[in-house]
Amino acid sequence: MKKKLLFSLLLIASNFGYSQTFEWAKNTGGMLNCDYEDFPRRALAIDGGGNTYIIGTFFGTVDFDPGPGTYLLTSIGFTPDIFISKLDVNGNFVWTKSFGGNFNGCTNSSITIDNSGNVYSTGYFNGTVDFDPNVGTYNLTALGGDDIFISKLDANGNFLWAKSIGGSNSDDGRSIVADNSGNVYTTGKFQGTVDFDPNAGTYNLTALGGNDIFISKLDANGNFVWAKSIGGSNWDESYSISIDNSGNIYTTGKFLGTVDFDPNAGTYNLTALGSSDIFISKLDANGNFVWAKNIGGSNSDGGHSIVADNSGNVYTTGKFYGTVDFDPNAGTYNLTALGGNDIFISKLDTNGNFIWAKNIGPASNNNYSIAVDISGNIYSTGEFINTFDFDPNAGTYNLTSSGGYDIFISKLDANGNFVWAKNIGGSNSEESYSIAIDNLENIYTCGNFSNTVDFDPDTGTFNLTSIDSLDIFIHKINQCNTSGIISTITCNSYTSPSGNYTWTATGNYTDTIPNAIGCDSIITINLTIIPSGIANYTFTDNGNGNYSFINTSIGIFNQSHWAFGDGNTSTIISTNHTFSANGTFAVVLTINDSTTTNSCVDFYLDTIIVTTVPSPVVCASGFVMHPDTTSNDVTIVNSSTGNNLTYLWNFGDGSPTSSLQNPTHTYTTSGPFYLCLTVDDGAGCVDMYCDSIGENGVVFKTGGFTINVIGTPIITGLDNNLELNSDINIYPNPTSNQLTIDTELKL
Length: 747
Fold this sequence. Notes:
The chain is built from no helices and 61 strands. The protein is mostly beta strands and 747 residues long. Among the domains are: 199 residues, no CATH class; 74 residues, Sandwich (Immunoglobulin-like); 88 residues, Immunoglobulin-like, CATH 2.60.40.
């Protein structure tokens, strides 16, 4: 019986190309951003299951089910309400909740999800608002013109808690993020003096200028942990916040004049070079200053969105004018805007050192949101008009808007190289405000559109028509593998990734893996086949359990390994082996060519039935002692059994042992002594027998005596000259319960 096993080093090198396949788009009434602001919030978040959450405002009655169903919500009073809506991985409606009250006509809000699927949001409100979106009531009342709110719902939209933070002026929460423990970090702007402890305690911060930046931390239950302020004598604003895996906190926005970016006792001043500069700031999880950087020229520049990857690299996007040095340290890396303002994307390492920066133009365009995947690829979204080159390097990749402003979605790799860009648009202006990546690297965007727009960015068509003058869209692209190259070295044969082909010769092959959504993968396989050795052996039964094994394998191999099935092994090419017992054994020969790392292994297995192991020989030691009736000596009969025995007598009195079969030995005292006989048949059987002799022994003696060992019994029978005389007395008679017998025997 033969079985084969092949091992090989398969994947030597692979390169895969990615394309973007439109998956779905949905629309509902409402809006995500106020037209007069150029810093949209993070209006979109994705949980671990691929569910989509968006936040925005609506006015009047709106159907929030983007499918055939209906889910109507009506705003309270004559001002818009905030809504939070959840769709599943396929874009189907799950739930929508709204906060009713007075929001002063419009509010830009931000949303994030923790690892448990809890939903956090921030923004601003005024007046009194009920933040429980269900049947309960949880009113918060603003202290000034606008107050900051921070709200938490569970994954089903149930109210958990809400907090308000504010003073007598206008304060605003602009971006929110949660860490792995459910701690909540919020950033934005505030004016005057504000108590940042939303509960019974007090923690006042006072702005130094018109607006100051704040960064706040609450725990998972909404309890105050810490708050920090950063600002100078002018108007400073933070638009976006992100955290890395170590809990470090990154923010970006714009500042004017000179600002101390160390929010604690230290000082770290940065001075804007123009009307406003971009800032990028890093604090640790306890709010301690780590570093801050500024980037800017002679005009007005600002950071809109920031994100940190798993290694702590920091990516920032926003807009700039004129010529700006994007190396925030001693070096110089100038970029020059090609239009009124250009989009920039910047990468710093975890210590704030410059890695690269790119600009995209010309024309007046806005990059509102940025995201990064686990490989460090960067995705951004925003709006552009006219013809726009989305390749920030030497190449050209022009897209042209359809009407006014079009939506764009762009991807760069971790080194800032162009990968792809897509645009979506109709006859009017469309805007995309937020982008997010799920665990499968699907890409989600959301924003506003009007009239009819084709949301399939490729050759297909998927039209959505706005219900109101301005609708919200949610858009999903499936990023899939469409082509690839695999270089493979293997043994004897190779089965294609699809399972449709098996190849046995070296060459270049093509395989196709279908995908249910039409995203087929076409793979080129550069295949090298190495013929492995073919294992085989013969064997000969030499008798007594000994076998000769002859390695008859063919082909290329330099190592042999035998496993005999009884726990023993050998690495000799051909070998002998002796089995210790009869039985059935599976003997396996494995061969291998170890001269290359591309190891090719084969094995041969056969079953051997062993029947020639001799049965073990049984031996036994023994003797019988008889007192001599005519002397004081003892006669001992050697009754040992077995073949080819050797003998060893130990007399127990310290005298030398004897190897005679039938020795004679004299004891000088009455003992007692312990007499032992050991026999050995030379074939593995050894046995010993002992008995006591002398005073208090089996044979009682009171003085010295001699033992004589013989090989035959003393008496083999009785003859006619032997007389037996005996007297027997039994009493009492009759007896009751107890009987006594006395006898005397004479030979």
